[in-house]
């Protein structure tokens, strides 16, 4: 299974990781998406059903934690992370509107089409202070076309 994310997602993780209130984000993302099966990574609330694709909202860290918006490509066992927001704290937000959900899905699809993706993988020890539990590294092999 491969886990990729959009540039917007990477920027959000970087911004939130600098705030002590969200120190758990990297570890939560790593636990949810690194070293797990495709079935485990693609669980959550189905937002828009599509043949062979699942656009889902996944809750991390329980109530008051984080919400991650994900496109799961079943046939290829790929997961694309498009948006993350905390429910509490300085950057906390209410639920995302249906219009914003549709925009997130389009942003993920555009990133896939243009190859502007990053890979999510466990952090090497030297990066642990910058991204606790997680690093987001741009690589060319995340360039995929949706079929």
Description:
The protein has 147 residues and is α+β, with helices and mostly antiparallel strands. The protein has a single domain (2-142), classed as RelE-like (YaeB-like fold, 2-Layer Sandwich). 28% of the residues lie in helices and 29% in strands. A seven-stranded mixed sheet has the order 2-3-4-5-1-6-7. A hairpin with a 4-residue loop joins strand 4 and strand 5 (78-86). Residues 137-141 and 143-147 have low confidence and may be disordered.
H-E order = EHHHEEEEHEE
Q: What kind of sheet is the major sheet?
A: 7 strands, mixed
Number of helices: 4
How are the strands ordered across the major sheet? Answer: 2-3-4-5-1-6-7
Enter the CATH topology name.
YaeB-like fold
CATH architecture: 2-Layer Sandwich
Q: What's the domain count?
A: 1
Determine the CATH superfamily. Answer: RelE-like
Mean pLDDT: 84
As a percent range, the share of helical residues equals 25-40%
User: Which descriptor suits the 3D outline?
Assistant: globular
The secondary structure category is: alpha+beta
Low-pLDDT stretches: 137-141, 143-147
Tell me the fraction of residues in β-strands, as a range: 25-35%
The Cα radius of gyration reads 14 Å
Kindly provide the name of the CATH class: Alpha Beta
What is the number of beta strands?
Answer: 7
Distance between the termini: 17 Å
List the defining traits of the structure above.
147 residues; alpha+beta; YaeB-like fold; 4 helices; 7 strands; globular; disordered C terminus
Task: Give the topology, please.
Layout: E1 2-5, H1 7-17, H2 25-33, H3 38-41, E2 45-50, E3 53-60, E4 66-73, E5 78-86, H4 98-114, E6 118-121, E7 135-138
Parallel strand pairs: 1-5
Antiparallel strand pairs: 1-6, 2-3, 3-4, 4-5, 6-7
């Amino acid at each position: 299974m491969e886990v990729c994310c959009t540039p917007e997602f990477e920027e959000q993780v970087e911004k939130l990781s600098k705030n002590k209130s969200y120190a758990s984000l990297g570890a939560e993302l790593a636990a949810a998406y690194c070293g797990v099966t495709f079935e485990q990574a693609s669980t959550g609330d189905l937002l828009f059903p599509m043949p062979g694709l699942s656009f889902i909202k996944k809750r991390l860290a329980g109530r008051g934690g984080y919400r991650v918006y994900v496109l799961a490509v079943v046939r290829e066992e790929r997961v694309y992370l498009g948006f993350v927001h905390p429910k509490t704290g300085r950057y906390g937000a209410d639920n995302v509107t249906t219009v914003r959900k549709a925009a997130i899905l389009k942003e993920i699809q555009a990133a896939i089409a243009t190859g502007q993706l990053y890979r999510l993988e466990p952090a090497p020890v030297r990066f642990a202070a910058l991204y606790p539990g997680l690093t987001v590294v741009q690589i060319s092999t995340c360039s995929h076309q949706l079929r």
